[in-house]
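Annex B.
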Amino acid sequence: MRSAPTFFLSLAVLLSTSLLVDASQEAQLSKFVKASRIAPLPGRSMILRPGGSKEADRIAALPGQPPRVDFEQYAGYVTVDEDDGRELFYYFVEAPHDAASKPLILWLNGGPGCSSLGYGAMMELGPFRVKPGGRMLSRNRHAWNNVANILFLESPAGVGFSLSGNATDWKSVRDGRIAEDTYLFLVSWLERFPEYKGREFYVAGESYGGHYVPQAATVITFMNRRLYGEQTPINLLGIFLGNPLLDEYLYYQGYLEFLRGHGIISDEVWADIIANGTFHDQLKCTLPEHTFEGAKIDCFNLYAPVCLRSRNGTYSSSSYKSLHARIGTWSACIPNMVRVESPAFMVPTISGDFDSTCSLDVTRYSVKDLNLAVTENWRPWYIPNGEVGGFVQQYQGGFTLASVRAAGHMVPAFQPERSLILLNSFLKNKLPPAGIPNWISL
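Carboxypeptidase: predicted structure tokens.
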């Protein structure tokens, strides 16, 4: 197994230092160790609620997929709580070439409570895109499985195809439990796919993934230290975040500054905000109306064209069986989900610059709060056609902030090539190209 690059190790250590200093949280994780029926065994990394099989989860083909698909696909359920009947659904795609030598990335969508299958896999970074009409798929040439094996997890229970027998799980969630469930999922999933034990591993996500991703990384780091030392089956090397919600205290300050800077609000409204500290209801971005002050503008990408027809968030049942999902209602996000005991501050790495919902302005405030020394000054980075892909700055310990030029909230959906270039640079422990790159050599 390759030694971990300093960049990723430093980032993982930063996460654990930031989030495990609270004695009460460490006590909670210790309690979790005892309650989760995890036990290391001689000659094995761990055993936990065996069930399911890799072959049973293999997907022969998805309905409407294009011909000559040259990678393996899997989907199925992993039980994370037998008592409550909590089962998390996953969709896994391997790399078309040299999958055995490529890292594993866990992808978590935000929301909170939105589908990694419906958004991440089918609209952003997955190998396919859904064609108009919803019955056929096309190949995404900038899919992330070009450079890694990607595991999409529907979390928490109630999102997408993930299920729970406990009705309260569908109404309210606690960030800590979601992180614990993610860990339990990974442990069981690795028993099903043992060839990925010890593989270079990263956690990635967007939006409220700014909470999910670092908290999952914290639990993984804690459990590795507590149970396995250097023989851990989960070889976490770093995290990769897009337009993350990181600091809820500073969220509205950056949000409003972004709207003013892009001409969405008037000088008079801005003056009233400064003078009275009031937040105008018309500034809220409502979905699916996409309304700012009565204007039909997509708050996830201010300069994108807007379809005024509402999405109903459903799939036809013909695709359920091929995905090994239970037939029933699928929804993109849990409606009216209540967050319980959710921390307000997290750690940033990357942001698109057209997104008002979790804007670059908000991310910069969060980075400033970390008070890290700059090691590489803010500079442009480039894509193969010579355009500026965005800007990047690196800090002590390898912590990196990058913007993606002309990207909205879901960066891989709006700028797939730029997103893939950034991911590839991240996996190679490099900053994105300072000059016009040769895509083949990235």
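Residues 217 and 421 are 23 Å apart (CA to CA). The first strand starts at residue 39 and ends at 41. Further annotation is deferred to the next reporting cycle.
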